[in-house]
Amino acid sequence: MRVALLRRSAPEPTHVTVIHAGTCYPVAVRRRSAARRITLRVSSATGEIVLTLPERTDLGAAQRFADSHGQWIAARVAKLPERVAFVPGAVVPLRGVPHRILHWSTVSGATTATEAAGGTPVIAVSCGLPHVGRRVRDFLEAEARRDLAAAVTRHAGAIGRAPKRLTIRDTRSRWGSCSAAGQLNFSWRLIMAPPSVLDYLAAHEVAHLAEMNHSDRFWRVVAGLYPDYEEPEAWLKRHGTELHRYG
């Protein structure tokens, strides 16, 4: 007996490749039902190249579109800030102050922010060399959680509201958010910004506990919690993207 086999189409690739001047650029493919045309962007936060296309657009047409923008892709990628890995000797900001990562010892111990000889600010890490990056990130996340918890508690107390939960993540699109259930979420990368920026973000999201919108009433709550909010908000617009280059 012959059994008919159903032919299944291969899944669409998640990436295509654009070659320009001998360099290969991986481009992520995203289909969006709301998209009306093919678009191409290079994320300044992650460096990812994304090709967005409508549901029914032929992938071949999308590939040709991306190929025709090879020079544009190369130019945008060239302008991206250099990424800084969490390795010994790298310099990363902590509360707005540059700190050099110092591999203090191979014996496992606490990671601390301190000063080296001569007063140079350092993040001293004690662990096996392969674990330095993870230890530095864990340290920064813990510092962010501590500072944000203190700031949220202070601002929430000022308006008589209490969040249901505080979560620290590596968010890309927003520095902070407040859910309808009163859960606050922040990026751990705020610990690299000046303290005023983290404090302002805490005040901003706490204000949403009272006003779940961006109305004039909301901004009056923000101003009551953090009167000079324009300055840290402007800092984020100018320098926020730079924080994503670390780690």
From TrEMBL:
<dbReference type="InterPro" id="IPR002725">
    <property type="entry name" value="YgjP-like_metallopeptidase"/>
</dbReference>
<dbReference type="InterPro" id="IPR053136">
    <property type="entry name" value="UTP_pyrophosphatase-like"/>
</dbReference>
<protein>
    <submittedName>
        <fullName>M48 family metallopeptidase</fullName>
    </submittedName>
</protein>
<feature type="domain" description="YgjP-like metallopeptidase">
    <location>
        <begin position="36"/>
        <end position="239"/>
    </location>
</feature>
<dbReference type="Pfam" id="PF01863">
    <property type="entry name" value="YgjP-like"/>
</dbReference>
